[in-house]
Amino acid sequence: MRILIAAAGSRGDVAPYTGLGAALRRAGYDVALATTDAFAPLVRDAGLEFRGLPADAQGRGSVAGKRELMRAATAFVTELGQGFADAVADGTDLLLLSPTTAQLGWHLTEATGTPSLGVYLQPTAPTGDFPPVVTGSRSLGRLGNRAAGRFALRMADRVYEQAVAELRRRLRLPALSASAMRRRRERANWPVLHGFSTALVPRPSDWRPGLEVVGTWWPHLDPAERLPAHLEDFLQAGPRPVLIGFGSMAAGDGDRLSEIAVRALRRAGLRGILQSGSAGLTADGDDILTIGDVPHALLFPRLAAVVHHAGAGTTAAALRAGVPAVTVPVAADQPFWAGRLAALGAATDPIPFRSLTAERLADALDRVVRQQAYARAAATAARHMAAEDGTGRALEAVRQLTG
């Protein structure tokens, strides 16, 4: 049986599906992952077939206002929709759709009759428990949160309208708006598995049937992989360091962020590792090391704390390692995850990206490293996560769908 996972966006929007796909392959399924070309090595390293999607999310992690983000999202989705059917539809028995690809994939399933399942990394359905994760707003009360959640879905529909119209024409389907298709799927209780921990987001009691929180899907990691020798040497040369990185965010802010990072580390009296990322962080010194991409699962358990942008994947990885965090959310769902970490007691209150200074970062680092309550809260969450089996729950759902 052929399963195709379709995902697009930043690295954090794609990498978890390599682990999920590898588990499905070990269970005997023929698995392909359709995503943008930048992530072909990730897909192939996990032993999965790569299919290219016609869009590029690279370079879109720079800080922008909400209007600019909407324009960029619309352009990305429109580009994604061009050729989507070619990449996805051929010979697929089951389609697993991410939040980014679901609004396109639904129309393919209508045209081909292929069954589908949502595999989401963020909660998108309206709930009274919290406001929409993409808005970064404070709670508006239960009624206000639900109303804001419905409004956020309508805004997402607008992002997809042009791509959906063109895709339906190509598939020779009658005209149907993105919002009408979404409502149709909601009424049918289309099943969605959410690949994050209930330690961070328990399943809201007011969600419709078919929406489940199953636990985190972790990026594929080769059992033979090790940290680079120079990083291993640095880790062994002194006390546990702090990692500072912003992933695919903050492109163009490297000089400012590097200076802030170095000054904060020196002020707090801590050793540090800068992860270059899209921002291009870099610094040299006996007590500071600059690195590129390395597996979170290998590095994070060796750290005193992590300073990060609060992307969903990095948030989960730090918690899994039982390591406290200082969060500097940049955009999109990052303020939501940052707030969740703080509510757990596993991170300090978030420092908004535009408000980041060396003094604020040093103060937060001093507290998170030296006050053991943060580490204890992270360790408690790590034990909770270790008891979850997100991949196993997904395999069970796939078996039920495929008979």
How would you summarize this macromolecular structure in one to three sentences?
Pfam families: EryCIII-like_C (PF06722), Glyco_transf_28 (PF03033). The protein is of the alpha/beta class. It folds into two domains: 2-216 and 388-402, Glycogen Phosphorylase B (Rossmann fold, 3-Layer(aba) Sandwich); 229-386, 3-Layer(aba) Sandwich (Rossmann fold).
Class derived from helix and strand content: alpha/beta
- So what's the overall shape? globular
Radius of gyration: 21 Å
State the helicity in percent bands.
Answer: 40-55%
List unreliable stretches of 5+ residues.
Answer: 59-63
How many domains? The number is: 2
Nearest-integer average pLDDT: 91
Number of helices, counting only DSSP H or I runs of 4 residues or more:
15
Proportion of strand residues? 5-15%
| Terminal residue distance | 11 Å
Mind telling me which CATH architecture of the largest domain this is?
Answer: 3-Layer(aba) Sandwich
CATH superfamily of the largest domain, by name, is: Glycogen Phosphorylase B
The tally of beta strands, per DSSP, is 12
What name does the CATH topology of the largest domain carry?
Rossmann fold
Protein name: Glycosyltransferase
Domain Erythromycin biosynthesis protein CIII-like C-terminal: 286-388
Pfam families: EryCIII-like_C (PF06722), Glyco_transf_28 (PF03033)
Keywords: Transferase
